[in-house]
Specification:
elongated, 53% strand, Immunoglobulin-like, mainly beta, 5-stranded antiparallel β-sheet
């Protein structure tokens, strides 16, 4: 009985020790698990993940819970990431970023980040506490400076500039110099300029009790994804200030490219025989192409088939290979023909024109040679018979 107890104790110790490397080798932590900010400030805090084990691991990361109305994400090198590869003994520092809502009130906000190994053996969860403090001088700011806009939300694609019209009013009893600042998503360009003037400015002088019209010019990067993007405008003079939030709603751009791997748009086909060529369709826009249909414009009695015959759900930057099978008619004359392939996506159509050179079947060539041989043989026999006479 004692021997069995010793074996059980030894087995339990082995199990406990074997679990230590699994649950102790991966760690995840915020560089600063508690921060205090002013209203309107964005958050960017390092999220450190580390592998102390002896084997490489991949840790999936996600935001399990965020404060209502906030926009939050985990990024690295400007990209949103959902996982991190951790070599044995290595570590990485990701960036947790959050943008507050327009009507942000003082208080405490919690964010929970979850990390999980791809094999499901380990799950980690860390909490970030954000305290938004009361803004000092808010009454002075809103009472001393007026800032209004008639169109706070503009919608369109990432290929254009957005111009927000603002009106700035100096409600103070003295003249003032007003500093102009705008904060938006990473990679966006934001500039102030007087209305109807091309120059960019960073401040301006305004007399007491007077107002001035301004334009905020916002340019998103060409690869910006569809979504809502806030731009916070802050104008201040001394202790007085005013803020407003402008919103750009990107609907995405729609574009496609279609070509062959080598760029060559010509092929050779035999009469009545299928010829194959592959084209690559790429989504070069920023919006998802939900459906891409394939059409052909060909000579009469020809056939053109596609494998696959359509492309669904093509994400921005993704490429799909489509095999095109072109079959000339049996009686097509030898020569060059034009066949146009058209990829019709969402709000965009991309044509590809092929030059198809039709050649006679080799069977007809052998038949022709046989006829020539027969004719020559017949003439030889004829001359021989006539020579005898």
């Amino acid at each position: 009985m004692r021997i069995h107890r010793r074996k059980l104790c030894l087995l339990a110790c082995v199990l406990v020790l074997s679990c230590v490397p699994i649950f102790g080798q991966i760690s995840m932590a915020f560089e600063y698990p508690g921060v205090e900010i002013s209203p309107g400030e964005t958050i960017s805090i390092g999220l450190v993940v580390q592998n102390r084990g002896q084997t490489d691991e991949t840790l999936d990361v996600s935001i399990a819970q965020k404060a209502p109305g906030w926009i939050a994400g985990i990024k690295s090198a400007g990209m949103t990431v959902t996982g991190a590869y951790l070599p044995a003994g290595g570590s990485k520092t990701l960036s947790f970023e959050a943008i507050p809502p327009m009507e942000e009130k003082p208080g405490t906000y919690l964010f929970h980040v979850k990390g999980q190994l791809q094999d499901g053996q380990l799950t980690l969860e860390k909490t970030l506490t954000v305290t938004v403090r009361e803004r000092r001088g808010l009454a002075l700011g809103t009472a001393a400076i007026g800032l209004t806009t008639s169109y706070p939300v503009l919608r369109g694609s990432s290929e254009i500039f957005y111009e927000f019209a603002l009106e700035l009013e100096n409600k103070m009893e003295e003249d003032g110099i007003f500093d102009l600042a705008a904060r938006g998503p990473e990679g966006w360009e934001m500039n102030f300029k007087p209305t109807y003037e091309p120059r960019y400015i960073s401040n301006l002088q305004l007399k007491a009790k007077q107002s001035r019209k301004l334009t905020v010019e916002v340019k998103p990067p060409a690869d910006a994804r569809p979504g809502e993007y806030p731009v916070i405008v802050r104008i201040s003079s001394g202790a007085a200030f005013a803020e407003t939030t402008l919103t750009v709603v990107l609907t995405g751009t729609y574009d496609l490219s279609a070509t062959t791997a080598s760029g060559v748009l010509s092929l050779t086909a035999l009469q009545g025989k299928p010829a194959r060529i592959s084209i690559f369709i790429k989504n070069t826009g920023t919006a998802v192409q939900s459906h891409i249909g394939l059409l052909s414009f060909k000579p009469e009695n020809w056939s053109v088939d596609f494998v696959p015959d359509k492309v669904d759900g093509l994400e921005p930057g993704d490429t799909k290979q489509v095999e095109v099978i072109i079959t000339p008619h049996d009686t097509a004359l030898v020569g060059d023909y034009s066949v146009e392939i058209r990829a019709n996506g969402d709000k965009v159509s991309k044509p590809v024109e092929f030059r198809v050179t039709v050649k006679a079947s080799s069977l007809f060539g052998w038949i022709g040679i046989a006829i020539i041989v027969i004719v020559i043989a017949g003439l030889a026999l004829l001359f021989r018979w006539l020579g005898r006479r």
